[in-house]
């Protein structure tokens, strides 16, 4: 505690401003000028970072962003959710009671469907079960194209919502191996073994199910993000499953699929900013 203090509030008040507009809620935490440099200086003498790539012969990582455009009709629906926090379909309605929920609905929309409420249940006083409102399969079509041009090389595809697997299976017209929150431990181990043995041409995963402490480098060298997560740690950890010792390819290709002028770009920009801040800290304590 000598470097940064012994309690959270002391640390926050020393290096950050915690205020709202006009002194009113909601409050935001913003770092004070030059505090980042001061923090780096304080922890550098007691911190050491060793980067694996500086000591191990690892394959090169190539980032491949694919940007697509929403057709006008879909863009109009997307804008309606963004501006009005709701969108009515013939059989269901999408409702958002906050900006956070609205953004979550926008991300669902871009992945091909939204969880909505059946119009038949409108006005009910009971908790309403959600229904899946299909919208499009544009990202699934991109994944199909990538699979068709992969020349037999296996693809690892990261998704965010359960319905993405259903949409992809409809587009590919076949069942797809998947590891998600609903996958049992034994089934997950079996699928990972099949992937690493080269028995799967396509494995769909949810990042939280496979991002940590797993070796996936034996099964392929291509990762596709159908949707980026808000969590930088999940993004970096899943990216790190392929460029590891035992990877036979000389490069790992990480592809991201995103719609232009949508929240997809907002998430990507957020991850870049957060990673830049994290790398700034890491670089300050890296042992050369």
Structural class: alpha/beta
Number of domains: 3
Multimeric organization: single chain
Estimated share of beta-strand residues: 15-25%
Describe the protein.
- With 288 residues, the protein is α/β, with parallel strands linked by helices.
- The chain has helices spanning 8-15, 35-43, 72-84, 99-111, 138-148, 162-172, 185-196, 207-210, 232-239, 263-285, and strands at residues 16-19, 28-31, 60-68, 86-88, 92-95, 113-118, 130-134, 155-158, 177-179, 202-205, 222-225, 251-259.
- It has 3 domains: 1-47, no CATH class; 52-68 and 137-269, Rossmann fold (3-Layer(aba) Sandwich); 72-134, no CATH class.
- Helix content is 39%, strand content 20%.
- It has a 6-stranded parallel sheet, sandwiched between helices. It has a 4-stranded antiparallel sheet with strand order 4-5-6-7. A two-stranded antiparallel sheet has the order 1-2.
- Helix 7 (185-196) links the parallel strand 9 and strand 10.
- It is globular, with a radius of gyration of 22 Å.
- The mean pLDDT is 90.
